[in-house]
Amino acid sequence: MINRFYSLLVTGLVLTVVLTGGARAESDSLDINKLIKEVDDLYRSEASYAELEMEIVTPHWERTLVMKSWTEGMDKTFIRITSPLKEKGVATLRIKNEMWNFLPKTNKVMKIPPSMMMSSWMGSDFTNDDLVKEFSLFEDYTYELIKLDTPATDLHFINCIPREDLPIVWGNIVIAVTKDKHLPVWQKYYDEKGNLMRVMTYAEVKKFGDRLIPAMMEMVPLSKEGHRTIIRYIDIAFDIEVDKEIFSLRNLRSMK
Amino acid sequence: MLFKFAFRNVFRQKRRTLLTVLTMFGGFTLAALSIGIADGSYAYIINMFTRNQLGHIQVHKNDYLDRPSLYKTIDSYETIGRGIIGLEGIEAWAPRLYSAGLVSVGEKSATAQIIGIDPALENKATRFDRKIVEGSGLSPEPAHEVVVGNGLAEVLRAKTGDEIVIVSQAADGSIANDLYDIVGIAASGDDMTDRSAFYMHLADAQELLVLYGRVHELIVIIDDVDYVFEKTAAIKEILADPTLTVEPWQEFARSFYQAMQADLRGNWIMLLIVNLIVAVGVLNTVLMTVLERTREYGVLRAMGTRPFMIFRLVITEVLIMVVISLIIGILLSVAVNSVLASSGIPMPFKFDYGGMTFTRWYSEVNARSLYIPGITVIVVALFVSVFPASRAARIAPASAMRMN
Amino acid sequence: MVDSSQNDVIVAKGVRKVYSDNGVPVEAVRGIDLTISRGEFTAIVGPSGSGKTTFLNCISGLDDVTDGDVWLGGRHLTHMSGRELSDFRRDNIGFIFQAYNLIPVLTIEENVEYVMLLQGVSSCKRHRRVTEILEELGLGGFADRLPTRLSGGQRQRVAIARAIVSQPAIILADEPTANLDSQTGADLLDLMRELNEKRGMTFVFSTHDTMIMKRAKRLVVLKDGLIASDETRK
Ligand SMILES: Nc1ncnc2c1ncn2[C@@H]1O[C@H](COP(=O)(O)OP(=O)(O)OP(=O)(O)O)[C@@H](O)[C@H]1O
Ligand SMILES: [Mg+2]
Fold first, then answer.
1. In chain C, which ranges are continuous DSSP H helix?
2. Which of A234, C33, C87, C105 could join B8 in a cystine, given CB atoms 3.0 to 4.6 angstroms apart?
């Protein structure tokens, strides 16, 4: 009866868009399959370590979280928050579709129940689900080059439509990629009815090791006015050796 | 004389009169009891809802109930509360803070509703202390204590003495998380709330959610529910704040109120059926009587009785039966209603209304339950008697002369 | 008042009454002229179905006539409204029925005082009159009894008391003795004769009873709705 708001944000903790990958040398003649593969692999690698900042803006507050993240393949992610002080030590471990949070204040490890997968991750505009489900444009979508009515002449535009029977919530995604280095500039996500739902913008192209990637990504959900989330890589190392122990509940509990 | 005449006529056909009186008495009593029980049960349910849970009047930030948000808060609520309690006819008030979060006890976790309350004020307003079914209530001062709804406790396999972790998002965007002691289990009677909510001290909740000095809701209990609209207006006036909404229970529990109104309309159908029975019974009796006394009315007419007096004679006979029926009907229904008002009757089945489960009917002795069926019985009886009575009045005086 | 003198209490001129018996017209009275003067003691006789009751109804305003005119005490009945007729009967005519027709739920006293009650006579006056009349008719001890506790003769006495109590000008009696044994009938007839002589009340009977015929001063014989003979004796 007193139906108070259940819909209120509930915090799950898992790192997300731990987008791993590496820079790619550009090729001259346009092969669309190759281009999509390049975009797919941009942040991917066998294993990675990154330091990043996440800035969350809402009409009510703004805050910046600083965190370290480790990944191994597509299945394992570990994130530990280092700043601000209140959240220092908060950590998330993801193995395949399962997620656990560690809260130092209560010294508890909590498994994220399935009912919370669509909830916001850390108060950001990403959901837990966003972080767990990784889809490949190359394998899970069909794509084609399209022309858009814009003055930008240095961009390729690609329309991606998910293959049937996949649990993908989008109707289609339109990607803008630079013609010279094949780096993403923006991605627009549409629902099945063709309404624009989110816009992801890429900027601050930097070289980390031998990969050239946009270090900054901004996500704007169109359903929530005044909300946006910005992820900025401070440092990222691809294809490194990562201790297997990192992706364990024991490590989650340790305050390192 | 007319009355004496009519009165004796009434007792001429004792069986028929008895049947007619029983019909009217039965119809009246049935309607009186059903209205009494409907009113009584609703008063009881309303009391359960308002007195025990929602309060008679609620104050929110505008639009809070339609689109709740952590940020739609009432500021300086203590000043407002003091202002409200200073008004005449206000019994109690209590502030509340709401949010939702992930809770876990041991290995079990669930999403749950956080209700921050002021234990002292809440005890006074909604007798929160009486809802504790296990353990104890919250301490008057914040002590990192939590009382869990019994349904939620079951889901979490929680008992008093357990530790509970609460994770939510604070108003400043930070992760709200802390460890509390479960000191008690509560059963409010509202299944939905009991399955999903837990209670903590308002100050603890404000600290957890970083909402110092703010609440989402004020509930007000008034002395006499009948004045709820007046008191709502009075509170609106002293608040004089266009960003706050003050509503009586009829509005904030609109769907419940409307369901109740619809049910009460169902009662009118019942009344209609009762009246139909009364109508048929009375019509039959009066028609038979008139038919039987054709010659007698003819004699009265021959001797110079005016037609209208015959009409009055018949109507008076009906009225006498009505009065007798109503007197015993009123005596019986007042007696039964007052017994049911205090003790109630167990329902043959469990009855869910707005998430609460009720197992007993209650009745109420009120004027409505008497005058509504009373007036309808009188009106119906008179209405159906008009036709036979005017037929009696038109009987030809010549029929007095003829043997049948 | 046409040619009815002050003394002619009942004047019937060309009275016809046609009933409809399931659509078939039945002419019960086929044109009767009759004048009855104050103080007469008249018996209307004739075979069954000759129209006696019908004629009495017509001249008392209990039934309306199909044709013809009726004056009672100088008033033209044919033109009166139902309510006027009702009040007229109350004040001018006393009825005695074959079947007594007392009101079973009223006591003897109440039955007798009923007409006075309609007339608005005060209760003490009513009581005095009723007591008087019951005493006179030998019903002294029965005032508070109900009619069912009386014999047929006693009931018809009460009916007579009821008919004469407000001293109407005319008493109409339809076979008043038919339900009584001959002795009782004779006694009642003597009583009526006495009232007629002592008080000058006009009596009109319909009857088969030879005893009445013998005592009547005037004998009107009906046959098939017409007057067959009309003789006055002295
Ligand atoms: N209401 C009526 N409808 C139709 N016909 C009637 C009605 N009343 C009387 N009659 C007919 O009128 C005729 C005269 O009837 P009425 O009763 O006047 O006779 P009566 O002389 O009084 O007979 P009785 O001696 O048997 O009383 C009869 O043929 C009778 O059948
Ligand atoms: Mg006859």
1. 52-60, 82-92, 108-119, 123-136, 152-164, 182-199, 210-215
2. C105
